[in-house]
Amino acid sequence: MKKVFIAKQQTLFIIILNFNGGEDILACLKSLQLIKLPSKWKLGVLVVDNNVNPTSLKLRGVKILRNFKNLGFAKGMNVGIRRAIKNGAEAVLLLNQDAVVEKNFLVPLLENSADIVGPVIKFKRQGRWVYDLGGKINWWLGRTKHEEMENGEWRMENIKDIDYVSGCAMMIKRPVLEKIGLLDERYFLYFEDADFCLRAKKAGFKVAVEPKSLIFHKLIEGRKKPLKQRLHLLKSNLIFINRWIPFWKKPTAYLYWWILVFKILLR
């Protein structure tokens, strides 16, 4: 009798950081229930709860990891990444709590040969603007920027070489984590995604956006960030400048950082 060999399934864990997610995270988790996977992959979903008062989330197939305090984005996500790796994950997908995914978004992500892959991110289902086609770094100012464009102009050839993938939706393959480690926890909020991708590229890994993969982000354009959030932005920006900006470009980056400080103080 001829033996039939069944390929062992690989595991992908989707990790969502919950902080006052409310209805948004419920919509996110609902969209994940409809997604399709290649046959050689199986899916796990981890929600890392960063709320001081634990959220009463009880959903079938979703594991809740409770921190009982706000650890920030990088440290909170690392809690989930460690658990996923411990449970045998071959890849992890970091996903924002206010994202809603297309049911087929995972298939092209998993088929992409890059080591860190992100989808195309749109503002919302009815929106005409593509919010993120990967990120670029302004090395003179020490700032990061999402590549955006109007929906009608969005074509595969528009997605060129990028510096980083947004932490809103970032799939990381296990060898990257084994070689360079987890997210840098000095970044409480912001810049951790750019930092991680630069570390990965420096180690020889490929970073890319997959144009056939699409998700939607609830981000409200023009919304004013709370003061505490803007201060986290400044702190993380300074850490990023000190670590990554070449010394001959640091003067302009520091000058621009101080301009941002005064802007915040004068508001």
Automatic annotation (TrEMBL):
Pfam families: Glyco_tranf_2_3. CDD domains: GT_2_like_c. The keyword Transmembrane does not apply. It comes from the Bacteria. SUPFAM superfamilies: Nucleotide-diphospho-sugar transferases. GO terms for molecular function: glycosyltransferase activity. Keywords: Glycosyltransferase, Transferase. The keyword Transferase applies. InterPro entries: Nucleotide-diphossugar_trans. Belongs to the glycosyltransferase 2 family. PANTHER family: GALACTOFURANOSYLTRANSFERASE GLFT2, RHAMNOSYLTRANSFERASE WBBL. This is Glycosyltransferase 2-like domain-containing protein. It comes from Candidatus Shapirobacteria bacterium CG_4_9_14_0_2_um_filter_39_11.
